[in-house]
Amino acid sequence: MALFGFFKKKYETVSPAKAKEAQDQGALLIDVRESSEYRSGHAPGARHISVQVIERRLGEIPKERQIVVMCQSGMRSQRAAEILSRNGYQVLNVSGGIIGWQRAGLKVVK
Fold this sequence. Notes:
31% helix, disordered N terminus, 4 helices
């Protein structure tokens, strides 16, 4: 009896362009990097909730909205996406993080 379905990811990793499209359609973008990283430049409209505290701050994240998570390169946001999806959120993870976002020519603000 195979249990492969049990280990299936419950979130999708998408391109920065798809993430921006989701944000434009009402998804909440959460930047899960450290405060200093967030202050050095983040996507417009991104809410800052570090991956280290995201589980304690679930009450601040609306379940009725799609959630898009990003970090520096895509690793910490995978962890955040796993936490959120495990808690019943519909989540997208940004491939390449803020680095990929910038490479895609998308705006960054300070």
